[in-house]
């Protein structure tokens, strides 16, 4: 929480957004490293555009066009589930 407060003070909304991308990217990296989870569920209501950035920060391969997938999923009003085994 302290990191978000500092980011907001220094860079405003853009700083908070970037810090959130870093936090959740690190979370997914740690999840992949320390568990046998088959996947995780990312729900960024109203901020779907940051999901590709989170996945890139997590080190997941870009063999999928995330932007097209997100647009398609949003059109169907479903949730995006990410396979961590890739």
Keywords:
3 helices, two-stranded antiparallel sheet, 2 strands, 86 residues
How would you portray this structure in words?
The protein has one domain. 59% of the residues lie in helices and 9% in strands. The protein is built from three helices and two strands; from the N terminus they run H-E-H-H-E. It is globular and about 35 Å long. The termini are far apart. The mean pLDDT is 77.
Q: Which helices and strands appear, and what pairs or packs with what?
A:
Elements: H1 2-34, E1 39-42, H2 51-57, H3 66-76, E2 80-83
Antiparallel strand pairs: 1-2
Helix pairs in contact: 1-2
Give a quick precis of the structure.
The protein has 86 residues and is mostly helical. The chain is built from three helices and two strands, in the order αβααβ.
Number of helices: 3
Based on the structure, what is the oligomeric state of the protein chains?
Answer: single chain
Total DSSP E strands: 2
Shape: globular
Distance between the termini: 30 Å
SSE ordering: HEHHE
Strand fraction equals 5-15%
Q: What share of residues is helical?
A: 55-70%
Over all CA atoms, what is the radius of gyration? 14 Å
Spatial strand order of the main sheet: 1-2
Provide the low-confidence segments as ranges.
none
């Amino acid at each position: 929480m302290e990191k978000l407060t500092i980011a907001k003070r220094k860079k405003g909304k853009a700083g908070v957004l970037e810090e959130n991308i870093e936090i959740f990217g690190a979370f997914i990296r740690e999840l992949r490293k320390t568990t046998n989870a088959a996947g995780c569920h990312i729900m960024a209501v109203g901020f779907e555009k940051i999901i590709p950035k989170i996945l890139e920060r997590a080190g997941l391969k870009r063999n999928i066009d995330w932007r097209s997938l997100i647009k398609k999923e949003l059109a169907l009003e479903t949730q995006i589930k990410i396979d961590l085994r890739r």
